[in-house]
Design goal:
- The complex is a heterodimer of chains A (272) and B (249).
- With 272 residues, chain A is α+β, with helices and mostly antiparallel strands.
- Helix content of chain A is 39%, strand content 25%.
- Chain A has one domain (60-254): Aminohydrolase, N-terminal nucleophile (Ntn) domain (Glutamine Phosphoribosylpyrophosphate, subunit 1, domain 1, 4-Layer Sandwich).
- Chain A has a 5-stranded antiparallel beta sheet with strand order 10-1-2-11-12.
- In chain A, a hairpin with a 2-residue loop joins β3 (75-77) and β4 (80-83).
- The longest helix of chain A is centred in the middle third of the chain and has 22 residues, at 104-125.
- Chain B is α+β, with helices and mostly antiparallel strands and 249 residues long.
- Helices cover 40% and strands 22% of the residues of chain B.
- In chain B, α2 crosses α3 and α5 (184-195) packs across α6 (221-248).
- The longest helix of chain B is centred in the C-terminal third of the chain and has 28 residues, at 221-248.
- Classes of the chains: A alpha+beta (272), B alpha+beta (249).
- Chains A and B meet through α5 of A and loops of B.
- Chain B: Keywords: Cytoplasm, Nucleus, Proteasome.
- Chain B: The 20S proteasome core is composed of 28 subunits that are arranged in four stacked rings, resulting in a barrel-shaped structure. The two end rings are each formed by seven alpha subunits, and the two central rings are each formed by seven beta subunits.
- Chain B: The proteasome is a multicatalytic proteinase complex which is characterized by its ability to cleave peptides with Arg, Phe, Tyr, Leu, and Glu adjacent to the leaving group at neutral or slightly basic pH.
């Protein structure tokens, strides 16, 4: 199908008598295009193909005791698991955490860059930067690189003068303030568990257990998530790492195997 | 085109930047301006040269807002002031946009002072010929501040200060009479200081007051007259008291 160039032609031939000379000037250069009936849809698909999927599960939520942040630790390249021990919770400074989803290099680099900016802000203004300010700095940077292929889906969690703060920031330049977020391919599964079990008045222990379970369930069903479920807590004094449990072990912790009668018999026979 | 990159502000053999010092001279010729910090209020007062009959006095406001919680008064070249004030206003909004927080008084003072310094170390430009008095409240702590900048780009915080014509006399007066005040007392102190060097009356001074709740408020001429009259009465009473007792003994 030849590209429809009628819109690109100048208005002159419309009222002048069409002449050989006029046609030559007004015809726009044509170029080969893919054989498809839906060119716009094709373009969209092409863009989606190069956009890297965010194979991970990260979550964070605000409750009465501060902010709980949790993530898995698997890195995948298509069907190949490239690592089971990736640190997806990045320590920006002693009172702020960032989560990693999307391109690992992009997330690591820009979080370190954000840490530098936060420190410079502290030195210049003699006060810590707010979570609002830090997330806005990151969002502005990512927006300026919009369309250039950065892949970042991060949550900035921290505790500042106004209390606990949680923002979701992504490489499209979006920035959202919220109480609960989950990012990554495992996020639908994590949301199911998180939204079901969430109460604002949970204790730190209860909140940590909820975060751990949500990550575990996401790793159980999502192939791109796995490894170790890390849970961090951000309180008024800063963040602390609460736990890092292998999700395989967590599975048997939640669903211990009770030997059935057949297995018991076999064990007895073997012993005799 | 060829010569515009040459620096105008260069060191003299004995370490002076004469252009900056000449700029300070321009400031010394400008209108007197005074600023006083109270515990819950900050006051700016500026000497008003008598406005021409046909001039619309409202178009020559000398005390301006940089943001809801920050105001500025200056002494020196008014045209330079306009440029500096516009840049500062943009910076106030830019800061709000990038970190979702209003500027602190110290931040915007540092910015203005930085601008003034830049123009003493760039090619083809001259320093700004003005000193500014910047007042405001910290958006987080609510503490009032008063800062002063000068053409060299230095800045510092003050409890009370003056700049422009006769600033030395005003400063001496403030040093003798300053104490921690609040509300109306602070306004009176500022006006008393200004009236040391300016002819009495609401016509000759412009006073603006900033509080945390109400922002910047320009005082009406009538209000200033009332306060000026009070001050005169107090002065007269003090004079009489001085002369009084010796006679009776």
């Amino acid at each position: 199908m030849k590209f429809d160039t009628s819109g690109l032609e100048s208005a002159a031939p419309a009222f002048g008598a069409p002449s050989l000379l006029g046609d030559e000037f007004s015809a726009a250069p044509s170029f080969p295009v893919p054989n498809t009936t839906d060119f716009d849809g094709f373009q969209k698909e092409a863009i989606q193909m190069v956009k890297p999927a965010k194979g991970t599960t990260t979550l964070a939520f605000i409750f009465q005791g501060g902010v709980m942040v949790a993530a898995d630790s698997r890195a995948s390249m298509g069907g190949y698991i490239s690592s089971q021990s990736v640190k997806k919770i990045i320590e920006i400074n002693p009172y702020m955490l960032g989560t990693m989803a999307g391109g690992a290099a992009d997330c690591q680099f820009w979080h370190r860059n954000l840490g530098i900016k936060c420190r410079l802000h502290e030195l210049a203004n003699k006060r810590r930067i707010s979570v609002t300010g830090a997330s806005k700095l990151l969002a502005n940077i990512l927006y300026s690189y919009r369309g250039m292929g950065l892949s970042v889906g991060t949550m900035i969690a921290g505790w500042d003068e106004t209390g606990p703060g949680l923002y979701y920031v992504d490489s499209e330049g979006g920035r959202l303030k919220g109480m609960r977020f989950s990012v990554g391919s495992g996020s639908p599964y994590a949301y199911g568990v998180l939204d079901n079990g969430y109460r604002y008045d949970m204790s730190v222990k209860e909140a940590a257990e909820l975060a751990r379970r949500a990550i575990y369930h996401a790793t159980f069903r999502d192939g791109a998530s796995g490894g170790v479920a890390s849970v961090y807590h951000v309180g008024p004094e800063g963040w602390t790492k609460l736990s890092g449990d292998d999700v395989g072990e967590l599975h048997y912790h939640y669903y211990p195997v009770t030997p059935s009668t057949v297995e018991q018999e076999m064990a007895e026979v073997a012993g005799a | 085109m060829a010569r515009y990159d040459r620096a105008i502000t260069v060191f003299s053999p004995d370490g002076h930047l004469f252009q900056v010092e000449y700029a300070l001279e321009a400031v010394r010729k400008g209108n007197a301006a005074v600023g006083v910090r109270g515990t819950d209020i900050v006051v700016l007062g500026v000497e008003k040269k008598s406005t021409a009959k046909l001039q619309d006095s409202r178009s020559v406001r000398k005390i301006v807002n940089l943001d809801d919680h920050i105001a500025l008064a200056c002494a020196g070249l008014k045209a330079d002031a306009r440029v500096l004030i516009n840049k500062a206003r943009i910076e106030c909004q830019s800061h709000r946009l990038t970190v979702e927080d209003p500027v602190t008084v110290e931040y915007i003072t540092r910015y203005i002072a930085g601008l003034q310094q830049k123009y003493t170390q760039s090619g083809g430009v001259r320093p700004f010929g003005l000193s500014t008095l910047i007042v405001g409240f910290d958006p987080h702590t609510g503490i009032p501040s008063l800062y002063q900048t000068d053409p060299s780009g230095t800045f510092s915080a003050w409890k009370a200060n003056a700049t422009g014509r006769n600033s030395n006399s005003i400063r001496e007066f403030l040093e003798k009479n300053y104490k921690e005040t609040s509300g109306q007392e602070t306004i009176k102190l500022a006006i008393r200081a200004l009236l040391e060097v300016v002819e009495s009356g609401g016509k000759n001074i412009e006073v603006a007051v900033m509080t945390k709740e109400h922002g910047l408020r320009q005082l009406e001429e009538a209000e200033i007259d009332v306060i000026a009259a009070e001050i005169e009465a107090e002065k007269a009473a003090a004079e009489a008291a001085k002369k009084g007792p010796p006679k009776e003994t």
